[in-house]
């Protein structure tokens, strides 16, 4: 399988086809840990063990969708129109947005895995994402965002402390800050538009396309697919009961 180089801003990504060993490593990760699976998938197709945790979540899903769109040896009988979920934006790719006194940074792969380890329902995901992205002197008592190179422990403690401040805001104040946050999210959405449900990230499509969760499992075919289902049968959930899981 040959994949054309993918350009995001000033970065050029070259994806390679998964090896059978790559697929086995992915299938060993419980499927409900979709962000961990995406990290393992990207480490394999990019031939890079560190970049997937550093890149933005938009980039992660954009590259996954490109790979799935290129793949022809697929177990999916009716191939999903992946391009409906990829934006044809002419705006430059930005990792941060500003609005008034507030700033918002894009979520990274490490952020996504951190959220996945802590969130149990949709409200957790939304507040957790805000806590990892939003910075504003107008939010009372909101601690500053940690440095990008902070330890995992520092990131988790910062997330919990900032989320607690956001959750205890009066509803009118929270709605105001969420509106600012959502506006900056839209400004940064140049590859795909992300949202959440109870199980994690979803990607928003066009008017006639339901939100979808894209999974590396869709890239596993043949014996790799059978082994992945075998692992799931041992007690690891396969998806979250969503008709649009892929």
Could you explain the architecture of this structure?
The chain is mainly alpha-helical. It contains nine helices and seven strands. The chain has helices spanning 20-27, 34-46, 51-54, 57-70, 109-118, 122-133, 152-167, 171-188, 222-233; strands spanning 6-8, 11-13, 96-99, 102-105, 134-135, 193-197, 200-204. The strands form three sheets. The protein has a three-stranded antiparallel β-sheet with strand order 3-4-5. Strands 1-2 form a two-stranded antiparallel ribbon. Strands 6-7 form a two-stranded antiparallel ribbon. It is globular, with a radius of gyration of 18 Å. The model is unreliable at 237-246 (pLDDT under 50).
Defining key terms:
3-stranded antiparallel β-sheet, globular, single chain, two-stranded antiparallel sheet, mainly alpha, disordered C terminus, 246 residues
What does this entry show, briefly?
By secondary structure, this protein is mostly helical. The protein is built from 9 helices and 7 strands.
* Amount of helix: 40-55%
Shape field: globular
Number of helices: 9
| Chain-averaged pLDDT | 90
Strand order of the biggest β-sheet? 3-4-5
Termini separation (Å)? 20 Å
Strand content: 5-15%
Order of helices and strands: EEHHHHEEHHEHHEEH
Low-confidence spans: pLDDT under 50, at least 5 residues? 237-246
| Record field, number of beta strands | 7
**CA-atom Rg in angstroms:** 18 Å
Structural class: mainly alpha
Described by strand count, sense and barrel closure, the largest sheet is:
3 strands, antiparallel
């Amino acid at each position: 399988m040959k994949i054309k180089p993918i350009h995001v801003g000033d970065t050029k990504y070259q994806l390679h086809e998964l090896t059978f060993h790559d697929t086995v490593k992915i299938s060993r990760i419980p499927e409900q840990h979709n962000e961990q699976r995406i990290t393992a998938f990207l480490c394999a197709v990019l031939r890079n063990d560190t970049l997937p945790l550093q890149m933005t979540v938009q980039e992660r899903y954009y590259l996954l969708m490109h790979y799935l769109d290129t793949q022809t040896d697929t177990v999916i009988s009716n191939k999903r129109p992946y391009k409906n979920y990829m934006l044809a934006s002419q705006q430059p790719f930005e990792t941060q947005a500003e609005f008034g006194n507030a700033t918002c940074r894009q979520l990274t792969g490490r952020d996504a895995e951190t959220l996945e380890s802590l969130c149990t329902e949709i409200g957790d995901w939304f507040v957790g994402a805000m806590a990892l992205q939003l910075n504003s002197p107008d939010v009372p008592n909101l601690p500053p965002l940690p440095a990008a190179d902070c330890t995992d422990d520092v990131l988790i403690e910062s997330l919990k402390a900032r989320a607690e401040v956001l959750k205890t805001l009066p509803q009118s104040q929270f709605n105001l800050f969420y509106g600012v946050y959502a506006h900056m999210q839209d400004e940064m959405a140049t590859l795909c538009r992300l949202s959440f449900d109870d199980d994690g990230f979803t990607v928003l499509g066009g008017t006639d396309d339901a939100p979808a969760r894209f999974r590396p499992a869709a890239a596993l075919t043949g014996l790799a697919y059978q082994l992945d289902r075998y692992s799931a049968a041992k007690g690891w959930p396969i998806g979250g009961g969503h008709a649009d899981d892929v």
